[in-house]
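Quarterly update, task 2.4: heme C-bound model.
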Amino acid sequence: MYKKKTSDVVAFTLFAALASAGGISALQAADEPKADAPAAAAPAAGGETKAPDAGAAAPAATGDKAAAPAAAPAGGTMTTAERVKAAEKGTLKNPYTGNAAAAEEGKKLYLANSCNGCHGGGGGGGMCPPLTNQIWVYGSDDDTIFRLITLGSKELQAAGYKRKGSENVVGPMPPYQDIITKEDDLWKIIAWMRTLWTHGDARKNW
Ligand code: HEC
């Protein structure tokens, strides 16, 4: 089903989106429609951490698409785009936080949807901001993160969200609403992302 859209299509769409938004110039070298090209290039270019290496090599390229499908038992029934429209600002909450099985699926989805091409296989960053540190560009709460990934930076900003944190890279996050359409899938990815947090409970707001 939606998995067919991963890999090449995802990478192409994303990089096109980023390029047209006048984003990070290094990404524009990734004209080739091969998903593995950007994935492999990402960690080397930014190089904030080494975490990306392992995951970045494997993911979008080939095999993971086959592994990813196990995910997604039916839960929420809206698409990500519908949910963002339907929910009042500040009300979205991840039903899978702390659910290890969901987080495991989330990691596969993260790789299958080429997030690692920009954020690194372990979420540690690369040419785009790390998902593991204490800086959150628009906010760290579930509601903001779900909307950012669904809408992308431009639409999120159009909806009134402002950058408050500054990461090592300032560029647009591409919209995923046509790529990750199941809200459950996105929540699982976010659940996995939460497992990367190593900075204690004090600053958690999810
Ligand atoms: C084309 C590169 C690219 C891809 C692919 C990408 N992102 Fe991003 N992402 C970015 C950039 C650039 C930002 C910073 C956005 C800004 O400053 O407006 C960002 C920001 C984020 C943030 C907020 C980070 C923070 O520190 O506040 C999260 C969370 C995130 N992305 C998750 C994801 C997930 C999950 C995926 C896959 C579904 C993904 N991204 C795919 C480029 C990308």
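Highlight for this quarter: The radius of gyration is 15 Å.
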